[in-house]
Amino acid sequence: MAIWIYGVLFALRLSSVLGAVKSGSGIASNTISELTTRGPHFDQTASKNVTALLGKTAYLNCRVKNLANRTVSWVRHRDVHLLTVGRYTYTSDQRFRAIHQPHSEDWTLQIKYPQHRDSGIYECQVSSTPHLSHFIHLTVIEPDTEIVGAPELFIDRGSTINLTCVVRHSPEPPAYIFWNHNDAIITYSSSRGGVSVATERGETSRSVLLIQKARPTDSGTYQCNPSNAKSANVTVHVLNGEQPEAMQHGGNQRMGPSLGALAFICYVLLVYC
C-alpha cells in the first residue's frame, strides 16, 4: 500500500514539472528539477554570452547534456534566420559554420569576420517536445586606441617626451604594444639611450613611452601599435626656443591665448584706438 501511494505522489510531481515546462511556450530554463535531468538540458557554465573583436572569428558555444537522438539548431533572432541544423549549415553566408565533434556535448556556431551588424541574440534550440532554447548574446566591438594629447605635441628641447597610449573596449588585453618613430620600431637598447616604456594591461590598457633629454632628431611621427587594435599617431615637435600656440613641458601643456581672449583684445583695440 505504501509503495502504491509513493508511486502516485511521484507521478503527480512529475506531471506538475512537465506542465510547468509546457507552459513556457516551448522555452525552458536550465532550472528544471532533478526529475527531468535524464532529458536534454543546457549547461549554462559552458554556454555564455560572447564579446568578439571586429573582424576576428567568434565562437558561440552551446553545451547540451543528455541530447540522445535530438537535434541542435542555431537561429539568429534579428531576422529569425535558421543558420545551422546539427552539423549542417543552412545559410548562404559562408561566414557561418556549425562545429561539432563526435561524442561531444558542445555545439558551436562559428562566425568568421564578424561585423557590428552581427551583434544580437542567437538561439541554441533542441528539437525536443516542447523544444528547449538557450539564448546567447553576441557583442561585436572595435577596440579604441588613443594617444593622449594627439594629434600634435610641442616639446622643449632637453625636456622629457612623455607619450601615453590608451587601449579601450578590448575583450582581452593586447599581447603587446609596440611604439614606432617615423615608421621604425623603437628599440630601447639603442645608442640613443634614455628611452623606456612601461605597459599596464587590463580592462583598459596603457603604455607610456618616455624619452629623456629631447633633441630635434626626436621630432616626427610616433605610432602606438597594440596587437589587437588599430594604431594611433601623434606628431611631436621638439623646439629650440620657438613659441608655438601649445607647448608641453614634461607632460604639462601650456596653451596660448583663447579665442575669447583674442576677440576681447580686438574689441578693445577697435574702441579705444
Number of helices: 2
Poorly predicted runs are: 1-36, 246-273
Mean pLDDT figure: 80
The largest beta-sheet arranges its strands as 2-10-9-4-5-6
- Kindly report how far apart the N and C termini lie: 116 Å
- What is the overall shape? elongated
Main beta-sheet strand count, sense and barrel state: 6 strands, mixed
**Radius of gyration from the alpha-carbon trace, in angstroms:** 31 Å
Q: Which bin fits the share of residues in helices?
A: 10-25%
Polypeptide structure, described:
The protein is mainly β and 273 residues long. It contains two helices and 21 strands. The strands form five sheets. The chain has a six-stranded mixed β-sheet with strand order 2-10-9-4-5-6, with no helix packed on it. The radius of gyration is 31 Å and the shape is elongated.
Descriptors:
5-stranded mixed sheet, 21 strands, single chain, 6-stranded mixed sheet, 273 residues, 41% strand, disordered C terminus, 2 helices, mainly beta, elongated
